[in-house]
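User: I'm preparing a small set of examples for a lab meeting where we compare how different chains pack in three dimensions. I only have the primary sequence for this one, and I'd like the structure in token form so I can line it up with the others. Please keep the answer compact; I'll paste it straight into my notes.
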Amino acid sequence: MPISLTIYAIYCLTLILASAVTGCCLMRRSWPSRYKLLVIMCCATFLVETFSTYSMQHGFKPGYIYNTWLPLETSTILFILYSRAAHGWTRRLGRVLLGIYLAGVAVSYIFFPPFSEFNTQAVLTGLFMQLFASCASLADMLQDKDNEDRLSVRPMFWMAIAILCSCTLFAVIFSTRGLLINAQFPFGYYFYMPFSYAANTCMYGGFIACFITLKKRQPDAPAGINLPHLHSVRPRN
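Assistant: Understood. Below is the structure token output for the 237-residue chain.
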């Protein structure tokens, strides 16, 4: 594996590990289940990326790994984004987007490259569904009149921003990847790397910000106090 790709893999694994460790260290029983699910997803992503990097170093294509994991990761993100929605239209849209994504992935796996190859069509379908879902989540927070907190102190704001920015950058990468390869663009590899660094930084940096913000909103309770009960009357996270 080229040295530049090795450095990139180390950087990404460090980011993912940092988000997983931050989530595990800050997670409390009082956290809503959607944020616990996000922590679990970060931990699973680290294991998957570690195994795929190991496979590439030993000459194996990680197509099977990504084609199995990415639908699970994308479905989890879509579920988390719409599960906290304050308005019915956002929850309904989230379910529709999840349904469209699952159908799109099935079509991509049936009619496009074999399962052993990286499926760009399935990846792009997931990226655009996440883009729509993150925009809907942000619009839902802006319309939530019952929550007067600033957006910057809402954990879900940081997750939605992370998904919006990272998916936009990844969409640029994967939508132009085929064109540059077919045109035999000699600097295509160097064209992608800045976008890849920025996309992963936005995604996992946003997850870390989400965990830290949630910890500040839900500090440890004194002994003998039922923390979930205390926070049942606080604004939705």
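A couple of notes for your slides: Residues 54 and 60 are 9 Å apart (CA to CA). Residues 63-217 form one domain.

User: Perfect, thanks.
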